[in-house]
Amino acid sequence: GESVGLHLPTLSVQEGDNSIINCAYSNSASDYFIWYKQESGKGPQFIIDIRSNMDKRQGQRVTVLLNKTVKHLSLQIAATQPGDSAVYFCAEEYSSASKIIFGSGTRLSIRP
Amino acid sequence: DTEVTQTPKHLVMGMTNKKSLKCEQHMGHRAMYWYKQKAKKPPELMFVYSYEKLSINESVPSRFSPECPNSSLLNLHLPALQPEDSALYLCASSQEGSVMNTEAFFGQGTRLTVV
Which domains does chain A possess? Predict the structure, then answer.
């Protein structure tokens, strides 16, 4: 079946450094991608999204890059802070399917 | 108000207890979702309601019974469960059926333990 997966299950970065979380997807029909942040004991929180007709989108301290050729998605967090510690999920939606399919998640930890 | 409220936050039930999970939003969203999340796993879609009608059932066992009594409320009735059904149950809502057009908001979840 189709799946959204992540390259690394855990990522440890120094506070103040930039973080890059990667995600691979296999469904070429997906046309919308979302990054979610899930802190311990909480539900997923929307961070940023990107449509398949774009290759880059920037938010506040976050940037999402989409490479449709290799079906790869990445989330870049600038100047990582302790509050960024969480599990990050990439997710995809099939066109008009109303189904958000989550990838396996990366835990981001911050070293002081 | 951009909150999706789920009650209870924690629930411990026996395999033959009849319990219900509740979800409420007052953002005027017309699509609501139930997800199941096991420890250290991503959320898995269970059901989607669009305009109060069940639009997607991801082959969920019949021991889970969803209900959408109105556009603000979503219930998940649990007449009889198995221990492997223990998980975090997440509710979400979005303005329309396709999240591409609007952001989906998630509740904090109900931590369910079946003993």
Answer: 2-95 (2.60.40.10)
